[in-house]
Design goal:
The complex is a heterodimer of chains A (286) and B (327). Chain A is an all-alpha fold and 286 residues long. Chain A is built from 10 helices and no strands. Chain B is an all-alpha fold and 327 residues long. Classes of the chains: A mainly alpha (286), B mainly alpha (327).
């Protein structure tokens, strides 16, 4: 009977600790969202999302952060498209053209893990060096290229995960009918992986839109909306960061509003990805 | 004029041959292209390594490696580049963050994989995804608005009063912008990450193992401890190591709350200056001071090598775990 109580006590303590941990994690999330909404919502005016900074904006005068919102969207969109162009063939190559258990596949996957783990500030420094070597200035294009480096491993890894879980029989059935590998890849595997593909792309996009360290040196910062790839480009994370470091309370409040906008955008991307991928998965073979 | 049956068959065969040839051509081209592109991650890795090495070379050539890594004076304008305060700053913040994050994450992962009902799981997993999706500046802002004042006004004075004899809890830094603030923010940031890996690892334990354990009368926790844990320990270690690597490389959020003072910290209430913050705060504007640019790229190289080390370690831990599972 004594042993019985002891092990049940242990069970109770373990469960208690688990609930405590869970409460801590959920509580932190709630606390973060609450803080951002509580501080951001009062400062979030229509002007904030429809106007660019006017004269004296950084001393608390009129204007908004439209430049940063659009800048972030351009940067993340460009980076995601650039990353997608390379990620899709890389992940298909890793799963269809290269024997899965081969040393080469193992090496490439390990290196992808390393690339995925490299801090974005290192990509930022690398991108900046590359940019100078190519004779470019801080610009939308340089930011997009750097973001693409950051997003590429995120995307490839997510796609690789999807492809590895795909039933082998599907592919083999296609070969058995006499299809070549490229035909199998494009007409059988690709439609089947579509829901996972969307998730991967949206994941990378969400990461890209929130990443500040990589665009810190490479995209520059400007109050104007960029009109060409060579223009410097503002971004939301940096708008938060810069405005927060200003000594004026009005400007700091705008940092809170910019953070709220950024959070809403990121959550929107996350929900959208879930929704689209759920809808698309109706069309794939289970 | 009507074609003879032989002629029609001939035409068809020729047509089919042409189609086949073009399909084979497409296949050969695609095979080459896909294989070539799959070398890209390797190429990118090598290029980054070489570029950083080349740019860090001037300082590596002029100063001794030991002097750089263990030097504690950072005065670029006088040609003194000691990385120790930054390395120490990164280590303090990261280690403290992991002390907070690792147990909490693993307990959450255990709950999710061993205890939670499907409906509970469906409720909690999106929360963790949201936590993972929040950008680091938003975490930083939360840190500035909430954690820093909390550390300054409540945690700091309280710990100083209760443990006046522990140097770890005493500091002359009254601002709240401290290692503890950085570590708390960082801990919340890496939690979803470690949960995700640990959960994935724990799910690989076959259902039958649990059932066998429960059938002989073990409690759920005993099942976790004696049946699940030994099988996934390597994977959990790998998850924690990867989380550490992530925490080590985090830049913006930490930079906003950690104080950025290049001294070697002695207390969790001291300000610190992590390596990532060093690069973020100074890169791009220091072109006139000799070797400064090279010093910062050397620190980027250092960061990359540390991440590489963590990755190798995690891979080894995972491999050992899976090897035992198969044996």
């Amino acid at each position: 009977m004594k042993r019985m109580t002891r092990r049940h006590l242990e069970e109770l303590i373990a469960q208690g600790l688990m609930f405590l941990s869970l409460a801590l994690v959920a509580g932190s999330l709630g606390w973060i969202l609450f803080t951002i909404i509580q501080r951001g919502a009062p400062a979030l005016t229509w002007d904030m999302i429809t106007k660019t900074p006017k004269g004296g904006f950084y001393m608390g005068k009129e204007g908004g952060v439209l430049n940063a919102i659009l800048g972030s969207l351009y940067l993340a969109l460009g980076g995601t498209v650039a990353a997608l162009v390379f990620s899709l063939p890389i992940s298909l190559g890793l799963n269809i053209y290269i024997p899965r258990k081969s040393r080469w596949a193992l090496l490439v996957r390990s290196l992808l893990d390393v690339l995925w783990g490299i801090p974005s500030i290192v990509y930022g420094a690398f991108g900046f060096t590359l940019m100078l070597a190519l004779g470019m200035r801080a610009s939308l294009l340089a930011g997009i290229i750097t973001l693409a480096f950051v997003e590429l491993p995120i995307m490839v890894r997510a796609m690789d995960e999807v492809l590895r879980r795909m039933p082998r029989d599907l592919e083999n059935a296609s070969y058995a009918m006499g299809a070549t590998r490229i035909e199998t890849a494009l007409r059988v595997v690709l439609p089947q992986m579509l829901p996972g593909l969307v998730t991967a792309v949206m994941l990378a996009f969400g990461r890209g839109i929130g990443d500040a360290a990589s665009v810190l040196f490479t995209a520059g910062y400007t109050d104007r909306i960029p009109t060409s790839l060579m223009d410097p480009t503002a971004s939301l994370p940096l708008a938060v960061f810069f405005q927060l470091s200003m000594p004026y309370p009005e400007v700091q409040k705008r940092a809170y509003a910019a953070a709220l906008i950024l959070t809403i955008l990121v959550l929107l991307v996350s929900f959208l990805s879930r929704w689209i991928s759920a809808r698309l998965s109706r069309y794939s073979i289970k | 004029m009507v074609k003879s049956p032989e002629k029609v068959e001939d035409d068809h065969a020729r047509e089919a041959g042409k189609v086949l040839a073009s399909r084979q051509r497409a296949e050969r081209r695609a095979s080459f292209e896909f294989r070539a592109l799959s070398t890209l991650p390797a190429a990118l890795f090598v290029v980054i390594l070489i570029v950083l090495l080349v740019r860090a070379w001037p300082i590596l050539q002029q100063k001794s490696l030991v002097g750089l890594l263990l030097g504690d004076v950072w005065r670029p304008s006088e040609g003194q580049f000691g990385f120790l305060p930054f390395i120490a700053g990164s280590l303090w913040v990261t280690v403290l963050a992991m002390i907070f994050a690792a147990p909490v994450s693993i307990l959450c992962a255990i709950f999710l994989s061993e205890y939670a009902r499907p409906t509970t799981k469906a409720l909690i997993k999106p929360l963790i995804d949201i936590l993972a999706a929040i950008p680091s500046v938003v975490y930083g802002l939360w840190g500035v608005l909430v954690i820093v004042p909390w550390v300054q006004q409540s945690v700091g004075p309280a710990l100083g009063r209760w443990f006046p004899f522990l140097p770890l809890f005493n500091s002359s830094n009254p601002t709240g912008y401290s290692i503890l603030s950085g570590a708390l923010v960082l801990a919340v940031m890496v939690v979803p990450f470690i949960i995700a890996i640990s959960y994935e690892v724990m799910r690989t334990v076959p259902r039958g193992y649990h059932e066998a354990s429960l059938a002989v009368g073990a409690t759920r926790w005993q099942t976790v401890r004696y049946v699940v844990f030994p099988r996934v320990a390597g994977g959990l270690i790998a998850g924690v190591v990867l989380g550490t690597s992530r925490a080590f490389g985090e830049t913006m959020a930490v930079l906003m709350v950690v104080g950025n003072n290049p001294i070697i910290p002695h207390s969790i209430f001291d300000a610190a200056y992590p390596l990532t913050a060093l690069i973020a705060n100074n890169y791009g504007e220091m072109m006139s001071i000799p070797l400064y640019d090279s010093a910062l790229l050397a620190s980027a190289l250092l960061l990359m090598l540390i991440v590489l080390l963590f990755n190798v370690f995690a891979a080894l831990a995972l491999r050992r775990a899976t090897a035992r599972e198969q044996a």
